[in-house]
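Progress narrative, Year 2. Work on UDP-glucuronic acid decarboxylase 1 from Callosobruchus maculatus advanced from sequence curation to structure prediction during this period.
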Amino acid sequence: MNQMYFRFKHVVLLIIGFFFFLILIAKFVREDSEEYPDGANLKFPEDIRHATYLLNEAYTKIEALEEKIIHLESRIPKTYPDVKFLNYVNRKRVLITGGAGFVGSHLVDKLMLEGHEVIVVDNFFTGRKSNVEHWIGHENFELIHHDIVNPIFIEVDEIYHLASPASPPHYMHNPVKTIKTNTLGTINILGLARRLKAKVLIASTSEVYGDPDIHPQPETYWGHVNPIGPRACYDEGKRVSETLTYAYAKQENMQVRVARIFNTYGPRMHMNDGRVVSNFILQALKDEVITVYGTGDQTRSFQYVSDLVEGLVALMRSNYSQPVNLGNPVEHTINALSILKKCQAEFAEGGSCSEEYQCDL
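Result:
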């Protein structure tokens, strides 16, 4: 009997305790709802200030950690591609204007790997520092942010003058600047070469032939040009650049080289440079209709950038001083090129070439 009373007593106490527990919970909920209604955060500005202070403290500590990480990373030696060792007799100090651009950066790679000292001068209008960032900090490499429209004073053995916008959207963006780069800039570089008695290579273009009547164009062809057309700022600028080069060579007895560069493609080219290869690649990757102007039967030649660089270096090291065409002697129609780019895009996406293109890759 006593045992049954004991159990009943505990059950009653448990029920009473649970009842009081529910009362306490209801009380806390009611107090919270009264103290923190909608918009309650606006009634406690001191809490907001405290939270803002803590947040700012967190940001400060994060910034300090980021600075420490950057400092620690700077202490880790940067690795560079392996370069050949040249003694002081064979090692040349080479200046490349426009060396952060598409062609110039590949020329930088070749000369650096050969063991030469390379100085790049670029105003980064079309060039990009990312094209040469893998050499920044190397003892044989120097990067100078400079516009060659203004004179530059530096000591070098050879000069590759590549500085100039080369794609239609870029050189037509500021025609007067394009003309200045190819005239005043060339005068400054030729004057530097004259003072140093350095060999200089001037990068000209196939555009000096204008709208040619002959295909392909030999170096002896004088061209079919329009001095006031939309491309004249570039075409005539390069023609004047060649004229200046040979005037200096004759008057000052200088060693000059002139390379007339034809269509070139490869890594680091601008996707929006407005030329046919980049246009076709971009449209194919976007699965857009490839734009072909005219009938598409017009022919063009295309060379890979590494082949062009080999040609530039070979010309510089030769004893030939007349203009030289650097390009691919084999020409293709624009229609054939558009089909090829479409097929390559489909293969790149893991597909197969559509039957409508009849590609044999």
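The chain has two domains: 60-263+302-329, 265-301+330-361. The radius of gyration is 35 Å.
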